[in-house]
Write a structure and sequence with these properties.
By secondary structure, the protein is mainly beta. Helix content is 13%, strand content 43%. A hairpin with a 2-residue loop joins strand 2 and strand 3. It is globular and about 40 Å long. The N and C termini lie far apart (38 Å).
Amino acid sequence: MRKFLSVAGLLVLALALVGTASAGKVGFAKTWVYDPGNTSGAVAEWTKEGLSLRKTAETSVEVAAGVEIKGVEGETLTQLSFEVKGYCGAGAPRFNVYTESTTYFIGCIYGKTTNLADGWQRVTFSGDEIGGVGAFDSVMKGIDIVQDEEGATLLRNISVNDVVINKFPNS
């Protein structure tokens, strides 16, 4: 009986450690909504098609939807891309890349686009886009994808440093 409890205890500990480790690894994104006025004007959710970001309030209203990409702290930025269907503007959806010295705002419309099937476009960023100059080869403190302009967009195959981003557990 003691041996069974010891093995069970080790298994529980191992599973807890795996869950903790995966929470910080690149490859996961956690949804968030910024809505200080409780307007219900933004939604961030994972659907069967990908990441849905919507802002139903006017662009001037202080509301945003997005995701925080986990596990990038201390990594050097080398690659950013996503596939988008729907709204693709100058400021949203965009990557916010946080470094020790500044924040880079890299908007969807400034990336190189490739048309795909069914209204999807692949958008890749090289670091020479408006807002992105200097971001590549910088060490990141964090990275978000933000939708704070009125409109709705779907994102899939989100990639940072050639790692495809998936739904964070319980997000």
